[in-house]
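Quick one:
INPUT:
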C-alpha cells in the first residue's frame, strides 16, 4: 500500500501491488478452522444457579441461527398483541390500590417468615428460568412498544434474569 496514491498514474506500481496481493492470497491457509461459536447460550458460560452467581450471556449475534431468531422476533412484533395484553392484564382502578398495597405488605411479611432462605432462593431461581424462557416474547414487546433493537433489549432481559438469580 506504499503506492496507494500513485496506482492510477503509475502502471509499474500497480503491477507490483497486484503481484504482492496475489502472493498474499497464495499464502493463505486453505483449511480455515471453523468457529467455536454455537447458538447455545450457555455453551461458554455456566448456567445460572442458586449456588453460584454468573452473569447471563446475551445472545451472540455473530451466529446465523441467532440472527434468524431475532429476525423472526421483529416479524412478529409488527402485529404483536403481547404488549397490549400485558397492559390490559395490569390495569387497575384507583380504588383497588389500598387493597393491593395491603396484600403486598402481607405477602412481603409472609415471604420472609414462612419461607426459609433456601425456599426463597429456589423460587427466585425459577423466576430466572421463567424470564429466560420468555426472552423472545420480552424482545417482541420491547421492539413494538419502545422500538428497541435486539442489541438494546437482549442485555436488558439478561439483566432481569441476573437480578432473579442474584
Amino acid at each position: 500500500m506504499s503506492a496507494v496514491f500513485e496506482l492510477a498514474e503509475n502502471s509499474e506500481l500497480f503491477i507490483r501491488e497486484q503481484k504482492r496481493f496475489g502472493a498474499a492470497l497464495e499464502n493463505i491457509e486453505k483449511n480455515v478452522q471453523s468457529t467455536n461459536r454455537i447458538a447455545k447460550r450457555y455453551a461458554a458460560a455456566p448456567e445460572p444457579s442458586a449456588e453460584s452467581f454468573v452473569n447471563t450471556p446475551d445472545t451472540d449475534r455473530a451466529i446465523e441461527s441467532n440472527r434468524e431468531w431475532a429476525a423472526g422476533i421483529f416479524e412478529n412484533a409488527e402485529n404483536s398483541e403481547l404488549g397490549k395484553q400485558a397492559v390490559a392484564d395490569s390495569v387497575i382502578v384507583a380504588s383497588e390500590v389500598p387493597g393491593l398495597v395491603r396484600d403486598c405488605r402481607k405477602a412481603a411479611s409472609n415471604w420472609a417468615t414462612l419461607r426459609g432462605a433456601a425456599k426463597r432462593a429456589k423460587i427466585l431461581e425459577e423466576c430466572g428460568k421463567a424470564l429466560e424462557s420468555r426472552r423472545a416474547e420480552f424482545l417482541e414487546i420491547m421492539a413494538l412498544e419502545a422500538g428497541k433493537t435486539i442489541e438494546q433489549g437482549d442485555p436488558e432481559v439478561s439483566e432481569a434474569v441476573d437480578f432473579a438469580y442474584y
